[in-house]
Amino acid sequence: MIPDVILSGAMIYPIVTAPIARGAVAIGGDRILAVGPAYDIETLAGPSTRIVRLPPEYAVIPAFHDSHQHLLSYVRSRTRVALWDTTRIGAVLERLRAEAARRPPGEWIVAVGHDQGRLAERRHPTLAELDAAVPGHPLLIYRACNHVALANSAALARAGIAAATPDPPGGRIERYEDGSPTGVLLESAMALAARAVEAPAIDWRAGVRDAAREYHKRGIVAIGEAALGHVAGLRDLEIVNETIRGGGAGLRMYVLAYGAVAEAMLQAAEAGETQGAWRDDAWLRFGAIKYFADGTLGGGTAWLSEEYGDEPGNRGFPLVSAEELDARVLRAHRAGFQAAIHAIGDAAVAMALDSYERALAAHPRLNHRHRIEHVEVVHAGLPERFARLGVVAAIQSCFTYWEEGDVTRLGPGLAPWGHAWGALQRAGVVLANGSDNPVLPDFAPLQGIAAAVTRTAHNGRVIAAHQAIGVMDALRSYTWGSAYAAFAEHEQGALAPGMYADITVLDGDLLGAEPERLTSVSVVMTVAGGTIVYEQ
Q1: CA-CA distances (angstroms) from residue 392 to 18, 476, 525?
Q2: Which of 152, 193, 423, 458 is the most exposed, having the fewest neighbouring CB atoms within 10 Å of its CB?
Q3: Sorting pLDDT into bands at 50, 70 and 90, what band is 513?
Q4: For 454-476, what is the mean pLDDT?
Q5: Residue 3: is the preceding peptide bond cis (ω within 30°)?
Q6: Is 71 exposed, middle or buried (0-12, 13-18, 19+ CB in 10 A)?
Q7: How far apart are CA 346 and CA 452, in angstroms?
Q8: Is 521 helix (H, G, I), strand (E, B) or coil?
Q9: Which residues pair with 66 in a beta bridge?
């Protein structure tokens, strides 16, 4: 087959074999035809082949694969008030006042991207501050992690949340001494307010198309949709079938089903129904069932084996009992699915591993590739348990850069085990890297690679330097590792003949750059299935 395109002259990183200086990649249709030295590959060109000659200091890598993000939540978040760049409570309140001035009285205001860990005051705005800033509108602010929300008095009243309102299972309404709500809603308590929000309809086709461009600009072609069903229930399934299937968005999606979508997927599998909405194609694949074991470090709801260093008496809490998690995991495991458990605190990680160990003892299964999402805190012995059980660690190394205010909440016993990518790597655990977008100000994989290598946060603080991993290990985690976590490493995550032509071109050689300069490297081209979808 004559190549359609040859990318030639740069440093080639196949991932599964050694780098090739002044190499080339030949593309035909949606596949890679050949990889090797440029002088060999260019002989394959025909009259119609486009040869893209690249400087030798450029790098050609497999397109990034974000193993854990939330595309539909990202689309929705782009319709809300953004607080990502605020660094003081005064700036938060001023932005909310400006938004209120543009809206009719009584209309809901929903904001995203708040993180008290990045504010100078290191606290949430108080109920009184929110009421004074936005007196004429119900207001709901989602913390960046989407596990904590702040409501003003008008929102609490609209939602019917009062002193007599009980905490829901798996959640908590924070209260003053008299029992009245402070406006801070943790975990499932957020739903009490969210269900009262009146929001405009979203154009999902346009939203996904526009969002895909942002992924392509960052060199991302493949994604794990980490909780399909979380945004609009079963409507989420319809949305991805309409927008992702067939390749119209230029994104490959591996689904981690949640809630109503997970239940429908389990019932379909148990009934032997694998067609229709569940049919895999080259762009949309189904395979994992998502569960939650705990909350987040920033929200103080991640379940730890020792108390938070800045909050004596609080260790967080599990969102489900061990017995309930065991039953859910066993059901997914017996149905042949991969299970994916959100577990951030080390106590939650241990509980998740316990559930996997019990499921595998009851029904042994090779190549299950069960996953734990986030794994922000472990303790001695847990990395080795991951490796022994064959559990994948779906990490987000970009958290080290953006969420310094979270991981530094750990006490002295657990602080050395925060974001322990190095310990997991040394134990032989497969790392599948991602961003958890839209929980951060940005989701660029290159930022995540830099953070994994340098362990440096946005404010210059170095976090547990002994847990660093190498550049190639970090790159592998964002490509082959994420493909492995999605059972796709035979077609994605590497540059080799027969693999999908999902390719990213960088304007710098990652191995040749000083670790501190990795963030200065930029994406200049992204190819999805042989089609150039982004070019600088």
Answers
A1: 24, 14, 30
A2: 458
A3: confident
A4: 96
A5: no
A6: buried
A7: 20
A8: coil
A9: 223
Written as one letter, the residue type at 115 is D
Residue count of the chain: 536
Which residue type occupies 238? E
Give, in order, the Cα–Cα distances in Å from 161 to each of 154, 187, 299, 368: 10, 15, 20, 43
> Rounded CA gap, 14 and 272, in Å?
38
The two beta strands, 81-82 and 109-114, are parallel
Does the model's pTM come out above 0.70?
yes
pLDDT (tens digit, 9 = 90+) per residue, 292-336?
A: 999 999 999 999 999 999 999 999 999 999 999 999 999 999 999
Write out the two tokens for 346: 């080390």
**Facing residues of 65 across strands?**
222
The H or E element containing residue 32 is: strand 31-37
Q: Write out the two tokens for 219.
A: 């060199």
Which tens digit of pLDDT belongs to each residue from 75-110? 999 999 999 999 999 999 999 999 999 999 999 999
Q: Which pLDDT does position 200 carry in this prediction? A: 85
Residue 362 pLDDT exceeds 90: yes
Cross-strand bridge partners of residue 171: 187
CA atoms within 13 A on the CB side of 346: 24
Distance of alpha carbon 167 from alpha carbon 470, whole angstroms: 45
In the numeric block, the tokens 């958290």 are attached to 399
Handedness of CA 214, 217, 218, 220 (dihedral sign): positive
pLDDT confidence of residue 272: 85
The whole-angstrom separation of Cα 471 and Cα 12 is: 15
Distance (Å, whole) CA 33 – CA 87:
49
CA 408, CA 463: separation in Å to the nearest integer?
8
Query: CA 274, 277, 278, 282 torsion: positive or negative?
Result: positive
Provide the token pair at 532: 């150039």
Say which DSSP state 235 is in.
H
**118 vs 27, which has greater pLDDT?**
27
Above 90 in pLDDT, residue 394?
A: yes
pLDDT above 70: percentage of residues in the chain: 99
Q: Give the rounded distance of the alpha carbon of 364 from its chain centre.
A: 29
Strands 64-69 and 59-62: unpaired
Structure tokens at 14: 């196949």
d(CA 337, CA 246): 23
Q: How far apart are CA 88 and CA 222, in angstroms?
A: 35
**pLDDT at residue 292, as a whole number:** 97
pLDDT of the residue at 185: 97
- In the structure, what pLDDT confidence band is assigned to residue 360 with cuts at 50, 70 and 90? very high
- Among positive and negative, which fits the CA dihedral 183, 189, 192, 198? positive
Burial zone of 389 (CB within 10 Å; 0-12 exposed, 13-18 middle, 19+ buried): middle
What is the Cα–Cα distance from 338 to 315, expressed in whole angstroms? Answer: 29
